[in-house]
Amino acid sequence: MTDFPDILRVLCAYKNINNSELSVKLGISKQAVHSKIARDSFTLRDISKYADILGYTVELRFIDRESGQVIKG
């Protein structure tokens, strides 16, 4: 499973946004962005907020391991 910091780096690269620009969009310090990424301390709410700021939608799905049935949140 890929960690969110790796995904975030890819999303930022697609949008050509660096951590400084991301911090301005989020209204937090560049150090706070760096710290979250370094510690991988993202909550689901954080992931949704970062994705929204970058123009992406997050989809959470639950998949039954036995049947493969997908339950969307």
Describe this structure in words.
The chain has one domain: 434 Repressor (Amino-terminal Domain), CATH 1.10.260. Helices cover 56% and strands 8% of the residues. The chain is built from 4 helices and 2 strands; from the N terminus they run ααααββ. It has helices at 4-15, 19-26, 30-39, 44-54, and strands spanning 61-63, 70-72. A hairpin with a 6-residue loop joins β1 and β2 (70-72). α2 (19-26) packs across α3. The longest helix is centred in the first third of the chain and has 12 residues, at 4-15. 5% of the residues are buried.
Distance between the termini: 20 Å
CATH architecture assignment name: Orthogonal Bundle
Give the CATH level 1 class.
Answer: Mainly Alpha
Q: Estimate percent helicity.
A: 55-70%
Number-wise, the strands total 2
The CATH topology comes to: 434 Repressor (Amino-terminal Domain)
